[in-house]
Amino acid sequence: MKKKNNRKLWWAISVLVVAAAVLAIWRGAFFMREETKEEPNNEETAQTAPVEIPQGALSIVEGGATPNDDTDDLAAIQATLDRAAEQKQAVYIPPGNYRLSGILVVKGVKLLGDGADQAILTSTAPDNGSIDVEGDGAVLAGFAHVYEKTVERGNGANDKNSITVRGATNFTIQALQITKSSTAGIFVGDESSNGIIKDNKLTGTGADGIHITNGSTGISIENNSVREAGDDTIAVVSYEENPKVTSDITIRGNDVGYGSKARGISVVGGENVTIENNKIRDTEMAGIYISVEKEWDTRNVKNVVVNENTIEHTGTRVAGEHPNILVYASQGNIDEVKFNGNTIADSVHGGIGVWGSGQIGNIYFDANKLENTQGLATNFKSGTIHSEGNIGF
């Protein structure tokens, strides 16, 4: 009888031990999920969703390109792109590394790879390696473009950008990995319009990471990661010599800075620009820079909205003395610029500055938070400043 009771007792104890172990495992998994939700990995801000390769896409390998060797694939890939344009088909980059000795032109065609870790285009000419986007409806997605070596920025020629959009319409640049370039990473000019630049990762560009200029309009720049840019990470620029102003630009959800050599996000001549929900950190000059510059003869700035961005530890260059946010005019006019709900923290040379010898009109600050500021929290030397509900001013 005792043996039977003992067996029952041991069975009951075993059940309790197993139940306790299951509960512990569940609790650990639960709290791990909660920690993951609370602490996202900022290194992976730009998402690279798989690219769907449409049926009938022309393979560059079938067109004569050979991966992972020392041969030049430029002619084979260009011929495949030209044939695809005639047949109204997409072009597929199978896994592998392909070499380009010169500029590749993508005119109104979809150029698609299986992902930046799989499909790689390597430019071997440091001053002549751009992928040029032209025509209507071009798509670049799901591959990496790298330079084998780079040269000094020099005259900033577009031939040595990574991607150059030349007057294209309705274009998409998505899920690319851009590593090194002698000048800009993605350059959009020549009055390009209605473009989407999203989910890309750019590192080590010789000039701006993403540069929108020359009267381009209707461009959306979203969820990109830009690190170690040689100049601004994302810039909107209009020059007086341009027939049209660069306008209607949205810059949203990007994660930029991290050792970049100039400004974070800048508008240096432009109209109707929205900058929202971006994270900007560790740039040598201002994190957000709104300006008209005599030095570069840029156009006026009007109607810029800066909403709910986080700007941390920018203006790190000792000689620059830029605050985290700077509104500056050395010629022309800046008017109707609105800063709403931004967090401005851990500055090196001050929180916010508004100054310059040009004309500065209405500048609005509403519900912004300034914290951990070295130098002046605000330094308003120009403009008509409207301030309401801010913390730390």
Summarize the entry for a quick read.
By secondary structure, this protein is mostly beta strands. The chain has helices at residues 2-38, 74-87, and strands spanning 58-59, 91-93, 96-100, 104-107, 110-113, 119-123, 131-134, 139-141, 144-147, 163-166, 172-174, 177-181, 186-189, 193-198, 201-205, 210-212, 217-222, 225-227, 234-237, 247-252, 255-260, 265-268, 270-276, 279-283, 288-292, 301-307, 310-312, 325-329, 333-340, 343-345, 352-355, 359-360, 362-366, 369-371, 378-380, 384-388. The chain is elongated and about 65 Å long.
Draw up the topology in text:
Layout lengths: L1 H37 L19 E2 L14 H14 L3 E3 L2 E5 L3 E4 L2 E4 L5 E5 L7 E4 L4 E3 L2 E4 L15 E4 L5 E3 L2 E5 L4 E4 L3 E6 L2 E5 L4 E3 L4 E6 L2 E3 L6 E4 L9 E6 L2 E6 L4 E4 L1 E7 L2 E5 L4 E5 L8 E7 L2 E3 L12 E5 L3 E8 L2 E3 L6 E4 L3 E2 L1 E5 L2 E3 L6 E3 L3 E5 L5
Parallel strand pairs: 1-2, 2-5, 3-6, 4-7, 5-8, 6-9, 7-10, 8-11, 9-12, 10-13, 11-14, 12-15, 13-16, 14-17, 15-18, 16-19, 17-20, 18-21, 19-22, 20-23, 21-24, 22-25, 23-26, 24-27, 25-28, 26-29, 27-30, 28-31, 29-32, 29-33, 30-34, 31-35, 33-36
Features:
Pectate Lyase C-like; 393 residues; 13% helix; 14-stranded parallel beta sheet; elongated; mainly beta; 36 strands; disordered N terminus; eleven-stranded parallel beta sheet
